[in-house]
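seq:
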Amino acid sequence: MSPVSTETYWNHNTAFHDELVADAARRGGRALDVGCGDGLLVERLSSVCQEVVGVEVDAATARRARTRLAGIDGATVSTADVLEPSVGERLGTFQTVTCVATLHHLPLEDALRALASFVTPGGRLQVIGLAARSSVWDWLLAAVGVVPSWVVSRWHGGAAETGVPVAEPRESLGQIRAAARHLLPGARVRRRRYWRYSHTWDRPGRAL
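struct:
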């Protein structure tokens, strides 16, 4: 395990890193960050897990992550598409699988199946995602959150633009919740701050 770099930043995605790292620390072992971007969460997870693998499909972004992680023992980045079956065979399974602001880039049901396949018995999948606004309630809650989010962003020095590929979410929170509960019984999906949602799923079985 290695200390976390001081070269960090804050935005509406990294705002959830502390809770993801604290949760992973309870299990330790191996962790996988799908859609790892520039590797900041991989770096932070390396302080509490014995091995951390980041997966990033964009080659240029993966190179940035490798630069960030250079010299950190047990932290690696793979340029790969998690929907390819060979990726799962190559990487194996993990006590913790994280996926932050990435799920909406992928076909929802296929991606949920792929993410779940990486979770070892007794392990946990943690998704922080974005959902499409599909109702008046969605838009109302989004509007209510504008001022608090602006205040917090200013407090943290502004939400940093990290230069990673972006996409608009397609599925509503209701559609995401229905898919998660259908494919991953026991999944817990809830609306969170900064226009995000969290999805937590524990694979049944004894921890390995």
